[in-house]
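Summary for the steering committee. One of the milestones for this cycle was to obtain a three-dimensional model of the protein with oxa(dethia)-CoA bound, which we needed before selecting residues for the alanine scan. The sequence and ligand used are listed below.
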Amino acid sequence: MIRSQITGCGTYLPARIMENSDLESIVDTSAEWIEQRTGIRQRHIVAENETTADIGEKAAREALAAAGVDPADLDMIILATSTPNNTFPATAVEIQSRLGMHHGYAFDMQAVCSGFVFALTTADQYIRNGSVKKILVIGAETFSRILDWTDRTTCVLFGDGAGAVVVEAAEGDGTMADRGILTSHLRSDGSHKEKLFVDGGPSTTGTVGHLRMQGREVFRHAVGMITDVIEAAYDSTGFTSEDIDWFVPHQANKRIIDASARKLGIPSEKVVITVDRHGNTSAASIPLALCEAARDGRIKRGDIVLLEAMGGGFTWGSVLLRW
Ligand code: UT7
């Protein structure tokens, strides 16, 4: 049986750090409110001329180097982003070109904060059907560009960043002892659109628009949706929370992460947290957290790792893998 294994990881965070206290001079907020309600202490913000393609390329190059994979050997690229450089072409194609790749194919995937889980699941499908062997999966976002910096209910929550992984085909024996992606579960429900959306677009306003969110409403749905796709992962693998070595959730709010882990019975020492330093980087948050924990030695070969995300759409999903 073909399994999809992550063989290399890369990250990039813009140099500029915005502390909570910096936001006090921009909107009517306090550093304490932000930290207490979200767990966020700081976030990274791109430089004026820095784009999603720039930061995605940097994470991608690091992941390729870590995997020892040359762009010439890649079959495809999937970029999860809601903040592409242009309405079209896909920013993935721009990164493909910058990597000197003129073969294969590249496309963007748009599932907002669930984007990386959607992209990784898509990569897994391509690999397991035997059509490709090496895929670069990137999550890269410049949400600072779509924030309304006069809206204190949203602008304090997000940050910019990029993470990337190389996914390669490997032989498994079809059991849960295999390394690689063991199961994934995706969901969406467009009836929740108004709770989290961008109020512009090429076919409506002809402008880019700004992020709008009913934060309390999103929060209210988040824990139930997250546990739904994690229970689906448990049902299809036979694993339980006791088997999870590392829980790598989307990093939107420390309170959502804590409530989900508590409901599932996952102890806090097994939860990877970056939201304190990165804020919510949407589709980049999971690869950033995953790569950090893999590089600092927390996630070890053979560990069971559970990824989950929930975001605009609503979209939500989980991936369970053995590292
Ligand atoms: O990636 C997925 C997408 N996003 C999320 O998952 C975010 C989900 N939602 C959340 O994380 C939380 O709902 C927030 C962090 C957005 C808000 O936390 P909350 O505990 O749900 O607060 P709230 O919206 O109920 O607001 C409480 C109070 C309000 O004042 P009143 O009406 O009680 O007087 C807000 O106006 O806090 C006020 N407030 C602020 N105060 C200081 C809202 N934003 C701020 C702010 N600074 N930045």
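Key point for the committee: Residues 215-237 form the longest helix (23 residues).
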